[in-house]
Structure prediction request, 519 residues.
Amino acid sequence: MTTNQIRVRVAEVETVAAQIRRLKLVPIGMSGLPDFSGGAHTILSIPDGERTLRNPYSLMSSPYDTSSYEVSVLKAAESRGGSAFIHDKIREGLPITISAPVNLFPVDRRARRHILIAGGIGITPFMSIMRQLEHDDVPFELHYGMRSQERGAYWRQLRETYGHRVHIYFEDQGQTIPLKTLLDGQPLGTHVYVCGPSTMIDWVLNGARDAGWPAENVHYERFSAPPPGTSFTVELARSGKTVPVGPHQSMLEALEAAGIDAPYLCRGGACGQCETRIVSCAGAIQHNDHYLSDAEKAAGDKIMICVSRVDGSTVTLDL
Amino acid sequence: MAAAMLSRPVYPGLVPDMHAKHNLIVTEGEGAEAVLDLATKTSAEFFARTTILYCTAGSAAKDHETALAKLNPKHLWVLPSLPTVMFRLKGVLATADMGTRLYAAGTEPFIGSVIQEALAAGIDFKSVVTEHRGSAKRRVQCVHCKGMTENVTTNPVACSHCGINLFVRDHYSRRLGAFQGVIIDAEEPGSAPPPEEIYR
Ligand SMILES: Cc1cc2nc3c(=O)[nH]c(=O)nc-3n(C[C@H](O)[C@H](O)[C@H](O)COP(=O)(O)OP(=O)(O)OC[C@H]3O[C@@H](n4cnc5c(N)ncnc54)[C@H](O)[C@@H]3O)c2cc1C
Ligand code: FES
Prediction:
């Protein structure tokens, strides 16, 4: 939804590692930005010619300083435009629009102890989470894996700030996170969090299950954008409108481009906010979300329009 | 603590979690029958890594401890009363780790007490596997004097502390392990309807 939008100015741009840029955003026309908790993200609206790309980025600055926000963006190898624009076109001083923060990756405040596992750019939500845990004086440890010294962001700074609580692993030096040792024998009330490549998230989820951990104590956030597909048409049952969706476009983006406001929060298939009822569908539904259960996906009467699409000609939505 | 006030809890039944490294089953009286039923859904290896705490004082206790012993659990502790079970449970949880899964079977107040210990040990209540067996009696907290009345089978019920007539609501506090009782005849004392035995 395009309400809750905030105008900010890019106050600093810094390359912090190979292909990773940090942006500092300060409010325009107000003294501070909305409060957030560790793990929250904001959605950056990125102008790209005719269209607007809206990508979620985790807030990595301190939740106790809302005079500015900071995000770090990895230039995606096959960027459709969003992260490439941030790397190639964003300059200090540029005004942009962001959404009020949303947190789909909060820490469990009842936890006695937190184990944080990050891979590559997946470090970003933990940057604000660690500030919060330090502030609340809750025990935590970070295990942060990256390809190499050059490609990893913030690891020196994290070591300095948090000392022995930070464990760094460089893949090119053959170092790996000792997952099994980490998970075995942890006292009750320990929670584990993972953010990184999808394969790493699955590795941790399976590892925790095999170590006998209950699902309630295992948390993750996926950054992955869905794969492209083929063109199709969305028909809106209530308004009677017809909207074309391109191969590199999500249904949500296509609706927005047509001036239709549909609800969203994460734009990553995680929160459930954009769940839409399917009236009829000529084609196969490609569910790319992490929200609906397997049974709901198989039933085929609901779709998350931020990430899922149709391989076929037309889908009619209850909108 | 608004989040602790929840309506009627559900107890989906004991299902084995085969991934857990250790199991801790806490049961009373007829709850033992739920454990015997669980045994038909799982293997001997499951019980080889299971500790059972059994309270004989539960409702309609038969000689269930013999049947439980035949499951060959790693440990079986037979204890005489709710306080002795909870004391032992606290001790076991103090050294348990994240690979441990907790199961509770018995009456609602019994499960409520187990969940209270679980919460105190840092376990999320959603990961406790529960099954309601035996009487439907409730533990009720009087919202006026805060006293707990045990073994409530009627509605309304007289508070065992301050004596006022309480209407037993379906409002449940996980933190207290009790239902909420609210005065029923405030307008006109003595006008309460006769107690009906509904939580048998
Ligand atoms: C909660 C969350 C937090 C994130 N935090 C960070 C972070 O801190 N740092 C970071 O670098 N990245 C983060 N990401 C990833 C980030 O949002 C982008 O996905 C990433 O930058 C990819 O960039 P891109 O250049 O490929 O994006 P784009 O080229 O702009 O494309 C990605 C977006 O386009 C849409 N899209 C693209 N192709 C299709 C298609 N075929 N069908 C349907 N929709 C499509 C999706 O909406 C997708 O989100 C986060 C993601 C999520 C969900
Ligand atoms: S906006 Fe969150 S699932 Fe689509």
